[in-house]
Structures are given as C-alpha cells and as structure tokens.
C-alpha cells in the first residue's frame, strides 16, 4: 500500500535561517506531488506541484522553492525564512491529475 | 487523536436530486471544520468552513457535536458540482495546530 511521510512534524526557526522540509512517498511510482500551506485563518494554498523528477511548477511567487531530486521525494526549501513563512505545510500526492489527493501529516513551522 | 472519516469513496446522484456527503470526525477538543473541493483539472479550494455558517454554491454544512459530524448538503445537485470533496479538521495536537483531511468523496452528478 502507498504511504506518505513528511517531516519534521513541528519546527521553530529564527528569521533568516534556511529551511528544508522533506516529503517521501512509498508504494507508487511517478506520483504527482504537491506542497500546500495553510496560514492562520485562511484556507489551503497550493505552493508547488510536480509531475515528474525535476519538473516543478510554482503557483505563487514567494520566498520558498521546491525540488524533486528523486521520483518519490519532494523537498520544500528556503534560503532565508521570513516571519510570514510561518504556517502549516502539507505534502500530498496523487496518481494523476484528477485522482484523489493523499495528504501527509503536515509540518507546523513557526518562524520567530 | 484527530481523525476525519468520509465513509463514501464514490457518490453518484442525478441532477436536481438532493446530495449529502458525509463527514465524521474524532477530536477531543473544539474543532474547526472545513470542506474543500477539487474540480477536474483545477486546484484544491476551500468550499466552506463551519465557523462562517455560510452557504457556498448552494452547499451548507452544520457541525453536529453530538454526532461528531459535519455533513455537506445541497438540496438540488447540479452537473457542475461533480468533483472531489474533502472534509478537513483543524485542531491542536501535542501543543501544535494540525490540519487533517479525510480521504475524499468523488461526487458525480449525472444529467
């Protein structure tokens, strides 16, 4: 069966520090991968999605970047965190574009 | 632990018929509940949240704490309502806020 792992679960980082959140999927190949963020009081916002290795689409301009170095690995990064980067980050995968999304457990990021 | 259950993977109704997408949750505190929708070839988007008590696109959802449910309802389904619907719960676990999704229900509205 397929599983999705996302870590860390919580993270507190100072402003200006780098960020790396990792997401891996097991039990499937060539998944579509997504990074979402929920900021306080708002709905989910799609940040990045990827349909294959090295293929990243950015949905909103921001301080973050994403990479997909391997088929089932999706990394969310920042060189210098801002206070506004605080939020709840969710990784998700789907088999193809219109298939159900499967979500990771999320990472609560607090930038201080 | 926080848990969201959407018991129906697939739901098919005819246009004009009432529709109810079920969502049950498990949470010991005071939850905040949402319905998200993903139309074909579009991104996931927020449909409604229980604290707003609003009706969006004819859909409503009432939080029933006694039954721990947050079912999504619409009296007359339209073909354009066909989509994937996800119920989500926001709560605090281990001192940290967390958003948990159900597995989704695919709604098909037939002409």
Q: What is the fold's blueprint, element by element?
A:
The complex is a heterodimer of chains A (112) and B (111).
Chain A: E1 3-7, E2 10-13, E3 19-26, E4 32-38, E5 44-52, E6 55-58, E7 65-70, E8 73-78, E9 87-94, E10 102-103, E11 107-111
Chain B: E1 3-5, E2 10-14, E3 19-21, E4 24-26, E5 32-38, E6 45-49, E7 60-61, E8 72-74, E9 83-93, E10 96-101, E11 105-110
Parallel strand pairs in B: 2-11
Antiparallel strand pairs in B: 1-4, 3-8, 5-6, 5-9, 7-8, 9-10, 9-11
Give structural notes.
- The complex is a heterodimer of chains A (112) and B (111).
- Chain A is built from no helices and 11 strands.
- With 112 residues, chain A is mainly β.
- In chain A, the strands form 2 sheets. In chain A, strands 2, 4, 5, 6, 9, 10 and 11 form a 7-stranded mixed sheet that branches.
- In chain A, a hairpin with a 2-residue loop joins strand 7 and strand 8 (73-78).
- The radius of gyration of chain A is 13 Å and the shape is globular.
- The mean pLDDT of chain A is 90.
- With 111 residues, chain B is mainly β.
- The interface between A and B is medium-sized, with 19 and 23 residues.
Residue stretches of chain A low in confidence (pLDDT < 50, at least 5 long) are none
Multimeric status of the protein: heterodimer
Order of helices and strands of chain B: EEEEEEEEEEE
Question: Tell me about the biggest sheet of chain A?
Answer: 7 strands, mixed
Order of helices and strands of chain A: EEEEEEEEEEE
Main interface: chain pair and counts: A-B, 19 and 23 residues
Shape of chain A: globular
Structural class of chain A: mainly beta
The radius of gyration of chain A is 13 Å
Summarize the structure.
Chain A is an all-beta fold and 112 residues long. Chain A has no helices and eleven strands.
What brief labels describe this structure?
heterodimer, A: mainly beta, 7-stranded mixed β-sheet, 4-stranded antiparallel β-sheet, B: 111 residues, mainly beta, 6-stranded mixed β-sheet, 3-stranded antiparallel β-sheet
């Amino acid at each position: 069966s397929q599983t999705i792992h996302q870590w860390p679960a919580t993270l507190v980082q100072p402003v200006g520090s780098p960020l790396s959140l990792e997401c891996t999927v097991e039990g499937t190949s060539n998944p579509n991968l997504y990074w979402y963020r929920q900021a306080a009081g708002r709905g989910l916002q799609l940040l990045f999605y990827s349909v294959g290795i090295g293929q990243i689409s950015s949905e909103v301009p921001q301080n973050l970047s994403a990479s997909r170095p391997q088929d089932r690995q999706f990394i969310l990064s920042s060189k210098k965190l801002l206070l506004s980067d605080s939020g709840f980050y969710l990784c998700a995968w789907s088999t193809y574009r219109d298939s159900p999304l499967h979500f990771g457990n999320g990472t609560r990021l607090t930038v201080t | 632990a926080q848990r969201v259950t959407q018991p129906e993977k697939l739901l098919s109704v005819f246009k004009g018929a009432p529709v109810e997408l079920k969502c049950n949750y498990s949470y010991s505190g005071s939850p905040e509940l949402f319905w998200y929708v993903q139309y074909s070839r579009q991104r996931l988007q927020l449909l409604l949240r229980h604290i707003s008590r609003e009706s969006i696109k004819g859909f409503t959802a009432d939080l029933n704490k006694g039954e721990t449910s947050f079912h999504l309802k619409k009296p007359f389904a339209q073909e354009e309502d066909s989509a994937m619907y996800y119920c989500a719960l926001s709560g605090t676990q281990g001192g940290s806020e967390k958003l948990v999704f159900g597995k989704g229900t695919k709604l098909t509205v037939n002409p």
